[in-house]
Design goal:
The protein is α+β, with helices and mostly antiparallel strands. The chain has 17 helices and 10 strands. Helix 5 crosses helix 7.
């Protein structure tokens, strides 16, 4: 049994690799070779990667692909996507091409408000607490002036600080609910710095507030942190065209297709089990672009799924309808993104992907990301109500199976050609591979 280790973080990178491979892998030499393969030969670049996180032992690569032909607000984009799942980039590209000749995607940002909270406990008169918070408004802003100065110069800053009484949910629990405008920055560090200063001001001034009793002066701040749920930082993306124009496949009646699309989305609205998978497909597109641009896809996931439950039941993020012969398909969701600061300014590929996207503002990136999610969902639902999801997905997955079988390039070429007209399943690929090898 391996013993616990003290001071692991103080070891050199080589010492960390030696310890982990010796104690937790079956073949130390092979494990070291694998780790070395994924380290960058550029020493400066590798050092940059090493300093992104703690206890780095190598890099973990994901493919970076591009989905072209996205017409968004009459501007053409090629959208970079970092993802490991087969068929996602292909599906997005197919949806982009479909809508390119039908007016493209329209997108608009409805709001950009970010949220942070100071959570605290207070025992006493609520009216006195409200009076105290009201009196502190100028002080909150004065005490954070050194933090907000640069943001305010660019047009952002603190937009609101209000007291919220949460005692119905938890005894003695209150919060400062604070709103911010952070422009092209995602703003996490800015918001958290402001919140921590609000907390300090709250505690310091409570002791001096003459209207408070001794008990009321003892405000206990529990924590100060931004929220990744941003229901007022909303973007909308949409497509529409006459039903008659949904004639990409001559074997499918466009009226039947439109009806099936609307019904499929209605099912995702009504049934949470379907809604989760429906929205997961949306996030395939969204996460891939968020990750490629150096943004925080975990924060986006958390906020989006909370928004999908805003009406008391988990439901579809997309909507579809046919009105007066026009098919409409749209999405509204919260996206707190940045194009400056964090990895967007540090990771060379994140900087390059933003360049490929023509150096968007945060508002423009919100629109691009929302469109990627909408396109992904359109492609997925379209497959589900026509050919089925597996036909396209498994063909894209074919190379993964062949790589697992260690097929040669010549064998891959033969088998890819074979499965152009045959159904792809894992067992079918294995059987065809074995037959090919036996024939040799």
């Amino acid at each position: 049994m391996t013993s616990p280790i003290e001071g692991f973080s103080k070891l050199t990178k080589a010492e960390k690799i030696e310890w982990i491979t010796s104690n937790y892998t079956n073949n130390s030499t092979a494990s070291k070779q694998t780790l070395a393969q994924y380290c960058n030969s550029d020493v400066i670049l590798q050092k940059l990667h090493d300093e992104f996180i703690e206890n780095t032992i190598t890099n973990y690569y994901l493919p970076l692909g591009v989905a072209p032909n996205f017409l968004i607000n009459n501007k053409l984009y090629a959208i970079p996507m970092a993802i490991e799942e087969s068929s996602v980039v292909a599906a997005a590209s197919k949806a982009a091409k479909f809508w390119l000749s039908r007016g493209g995607f329209k997108a608009s940002v409805i709001g950009t408000e970010k949220i942070g909270q100071v959570h605290f406990m207070y025992e006493g008169d609520v009216k006195k607490l409200q009076g105290f918070i009201d009196s502190l408004q100028p002080r909150f802003r004065k005490d954070t002036a050194n933090i907000t100065a640069n943001m305010e110069k660019r047009g952002g800053g603190i937009t609101g600080i209000e007291l919220r009484n949460k005692t119905a949910a938890l005894k003695n629990y209150y919060q400062l609910h604070c709103t911010f405008e952070t422009l092209d920055a995602m703003g996490a560090n800015f918001i958290n710095s402001c919140l921590e200063q609000f907390a300090n001001t709250l505690k310091e001034q409570a002791v001096r507030y003459e209207s408070f009793s001794d008990t009321e002066k003892r405000i206990e701040v529990v924590m100060s942190i931004l929220s990744n749920y941003v229901p007022n930082c909303i973007v909308r993306a949409e497509v529409e065209c006459p039903v008659a124009s949904l004639n990409d496949d001559p074997s499918v009646d466009p009226n039947v297709f439109a009806e099936k699309m609307v019904r499929a989305v209605a099912i995702a609205k009504a049934e949470p089990f379907r809604a989760v998978t429906h929205n997961k497909g949306i996030m395939n597109g969204i996460d891939a672009v968020v990750l490629a641009t150096g943004n925080d896809f975990r924060a986006i996931e958390a906020g989006v799924h909370a928004y999908a439950s805003k009406d008391g039941k988990y439901s579809s993020l997309t909507h579809a309808e046919v009105t007066n012969g026009i098919f409409k398909f749209w999405i509204e969701l919260p996206l707190a993104l940045g194009t400056v600061g964090g990895l967007t300014s540090l990771h060379p590929l994140a900087k390059l992907t933003l360049e490929i996207l023509q150096k968007p503002t945060a508002v423009e990136l919100m629109q691009i990301v929302a469109v990627a999610g909408l396109a992904q969902n359109f492609a997925a639902v379209r497959s589900l109500v026509t050919t089925g999801i597996q036909q396209g997905h498994m063909k894209m997955h074919l190379l993964n199976i062949l790589n697992q079988l260690n097929a040669t390039e010549a064998e891959k070429k033969v088998l890819v050609n074979h499965f152009k007209t045959n159904t792809v399943t894992h067992s079918a690929v294995v059987a065809a591979f074995e037959q090919l090898q036996n024939a040799k």
